[in-house]
Amino acid sequence: MFTAPGRRGRERQPVHAVTRLMQLQSAAQAIPFHTNGMRVGLLGGSFNPPHAAHRAISLFAIKRLKLDRVWWLLTPGNPLKDNGRLHGLAERVDAALDVADDPRIDVSCLEAVIGTRYTVDTIIHLRRRVSGVHFVWIMGADNLAQFHRWQNWRRIAAEVPIAVIDRPPQSFRALAAPAAQALARYRLPENQAARLADQHAPAWAFLTGLKLDMSSTGLRNPDGSWKAKK
Ligand SMILES: Nc1ncnc2c1ncn2[C@@H]1O[C@H](COP(=O)(O)OP(=O)(O)OP(=O)(O)O)[C@@H](O)[C@H]1O
Ligand SMILES: O=C(O)c1ccc[n+]([C@@H]2O[C@H](COP(=O)([O-])O)[C@@H](O)[C@H]2O)c1
């Protein structure tokens, strides 16, 4: 028997082993459930470890962008990070399923399955394999600040609308960074963010209203192990 954390303030709920096995299998199957016309946010990340802000920004994006679901795409290793102390994918999937704790959030190992660490490959793969779904790439402002260093970032921006979530103290730097400047004319006013998933790329929006200082870095010990949950 596994346990999954309940929403804040609730008791931890038991999760039957068969349910957990099904969740793990569907993560391994890589492309989560979808139907024609669905609006899906893609939150790529290291999730080392997953934390409450991942869940909070996913639910925030569902609300503000009028999404049906968010897929957490667990990277085999961010190409711009030192991945020497990155925990194994299975351990991160297991922890992500615990933290996500919402039927609208799916956890996926798509990038490991297709054998890439590059977002551009992931987006092109999804565009080819999944039709009729409106995707939005979601990232924190720290990632917008270095988006110009991602492989083929202009192609990513040309393929999928992007929602950037405020993440102090990165926000000012992010909006002044090369990618934000280059894409400035494609930025939607925040009060039109609900239309983002319907837009042809390039299109992006910067979402304020949620400021969370939680990070995976803060949840790791100096040796890379994850701090025990309180
Ligand atoms: N507190 C937060 N506010 C806004 N976005 C966040 C926050 N935490 C994570 N994100 C975003 O979620 C995605 C996945 O993040 P990631 O798994 O790298 O967690 P992290 O806390 O940023 O990790 P680390 O501290 O190791 O860099 C990224 O786009 C990141 O910008
Ligand atoms: O494609 C790239 O070049 C690239 C460079 C840096 C980061 N990314 C992706 O950005 C997402 C966020 O990464 P992270 O480590 O900040 O959680 C994750 O999906 C990474 O694979 C992608």
UniProtKB/TrEMBL annotation:
UniProt keyword annotations, A-Z: ATP-binding, NAD, Nucleotide-binding, Nucleotidyltransferase, Pyridine nucleotide biosynthesis, Transferase
Name of the protein this chain belongs to: Probable nicotinate-nucleotide adenylyltransferase
Keyword Nucleotidyltransferase set for record: yes
A GO molecular-function descriptor: nicotinate-nucleotide adenylyltransferase activity
Cross-referenced InterPro entries: Cyt_trans-like, NadD/NMNAT, Rossmann-like_a/b/a_fold
Stretches assigned to the Cytidyltransferase-like domain: 42-180
Catalysed transformations (reactions): nicotinate beta-D-ribonucleotide + ATP + H(+) = deamido-NAD(+) + diphosphate
Pfam families for this protein: CTP_transf_like
Family: Belongs to the NadD family.
Its job: Catalyzes the reversible adenylation of nicotinate mononucleotide (NaMN) to nicotinic acid adenine dinucleotide (NaAD).
Source species of the chain: Bradyrhizobium algeriense
Recorded metabolic or biological pathway in which this protein acts: Cofactor biosynthesis; NAD(+) biosynthesis; deamido-NAD(+) from nicotinate D-ribonucleotide: step 1/1
The enzyme's E.C. designation: 2.7.7.18
